[in-house]
Structures are given as structure tokens and as C-alpha cells.
Design a protein that fits this description.
Blueprint (H helix, E strand, L loop, with lengths): L13 H5 L4 E4 L3 E5 L9 H5 L19 H8 L7 E5 H7 L2
Antiparallel strand pairs: 1-2, 2-3
Amino acid sequence: MIFLNSLLDFAGHPEDLMSESEKTYTNGEITVVWKPGVCIHSAKCVQGLGEVFNVNARPWINMEGAGTERIIQQVGQCPSGALSYFRNEKIAKATR
């Protein structure tokens, strides 16, 4: 469900608003998962860490824009749960 009163100007990319697939972004240490179909576009990520979350850029998540711990902090502020992350090292250990 998309709340029209909470949509931020998504720069004319309606496919990002309506997509149900998960999109992943990594910096090698962690992978951020974005679920567009869950996102309510509150803009907390953009307002809190614009160096990483920029709706005018493609890709809109730049994992090199801040350190891993700061990204983790900001992902934790997502009110809808559309943003999550996992540490890549745990995946590597699990597959050994």
C-alpha cells in the first residue's frame, strides 16, 4: 500500500514505486535489501543519510556513501521495514 500523503518526490520513476521485487545493494561488508512494495516512502532514510539514500541517483542506494555502522543505524530507522540488511561474512561462513 502506498500512502499518497507520505510519498516523496520520486523523480518520475514509477516503476520503483510499484515493483514488488527485492533489490540488493552491497559494500562488501553488508548487503542492504530494499522491498519497494513494502516501502511507504516516509523519506526517513533520505533525510537521515542522504549520502547513501538519494532518490535522484541511480542506483538510489550508494553503499559507498557512508560507513557500514552508520548505514546499519539508518536502515534500523525504516518505519515500514522495507529496508533491512545482513552481514556478508555470516553468509560466507554458512556456505563453508
